[in-house]
Amino acid sequence: MDYCVQLGFDNVNAPELKGYGVDHVAVVEGLGCKALRVSKPEEIEPAFVQAQTLMRQYRVPVVVEVMLERVTNVAMGTEINNITEFEDLAAGKADAPTAIALLD
Length: 104
What we know:
Elements: H1 24-30, E1 34-38, H2 44-58, E2 62-66, E3 76-77, E4 83-84
Parallel strand pairs: 1-2
Antiparallel strand pairs: 3-4
């Protein structure tokens, strides 16, 4: 079975999204919170630092939206015990940075 979830569309109100669909930053800000969008890996850590500053300053939730590649394989399935993995899982330190947990 081929799984496909398509969330992208050309948002005429946010052409800077380049077909990614919903402007989550605008939605979050419309709900009275703060949001940041990053599109490069090196922007992630500074965005979290900035999010903490905004959270303390405005005392509201802050969302950091990380833009990923448009087409990717994501683990999914119909049941938690029946997940399809499209790529090998991290098994050792050599697999970093894809490892999501300590592998010692």
